[in-house]
Backbone:
């Protein structure tokens, strides 16, 4: 019963952390770090050191590859966390 209360509190706190910025500033632009970095260096005459070997044909493919990379990383981390938890439970 105690774990159910802990999870409820955890979910409520997480929800509050994610929703609060949208309530405080609903019309704000929430951009990523990549866009901000590009804007910061674009006006300074920056030239890239090299060109990419392969560029995805569209933004959707690029997003798909990024999501696939994130999923593979999450699977690897989840496997090792589960493995360690299983070793502790076995003892």
Residues:
């Amino acid at each position: 019963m105690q774990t159910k209360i802990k999870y409820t509190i955890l979910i409520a706190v997480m929800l509050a952390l994610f929703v609060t910025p949208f309530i405080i500033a609903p019309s704000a632009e929430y951009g990523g770090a990549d866009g901000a970095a590009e804007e910061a260096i674009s006006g300074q005459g920056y030239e890239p050191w090299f060109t990419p070997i392969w560029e995805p044909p569209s933004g959707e493919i690029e997003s798909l590859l990024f999501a696939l990379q994130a999923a593979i990383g999450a699977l690897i981390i989840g496997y090792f966390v589960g493995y360690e938890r299983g070793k502790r439970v076995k003892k």
User: Anything to note?
Assistant: Helices lie at 2-24, 33-42, 59-90.
